[in-house]
């Protein structure tokens, strides 16, 4: 019997987003949709702030090197 092997290349995780934290009470069924939405929006804002910080960090590196 012939075996087929598939390769997908190297996996490179994306560290540009936080991902969020899962709490035990997320699974108890008593979490309101409002609190879940607030946590999701908070995580999105955190990710956006991290993205802006990374852009500024890269701009500063290029500025110090003398490239624009």
UniProtKB/TrEMBL annotation:
<protein>
    <submittedName>
        <fullName>Uncharacterized protein</fullName>
    </submittedName>
</protein>
């Amino acid at each position: 019997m012939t075996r087929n092997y598939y390769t997908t290349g190297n996996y490179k995780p994306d560290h540009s987003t936080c991902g969020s934290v899962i709490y035990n009470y997320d699974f108890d069924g008593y979490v309101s949709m409002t609190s879940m939405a607030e946590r999701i929006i908070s995580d999105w804002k955190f990710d956006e702030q991290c993205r802006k910080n990374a852009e500024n960090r890269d701009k500063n590196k290029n500025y110090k090197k003398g490239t624009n």
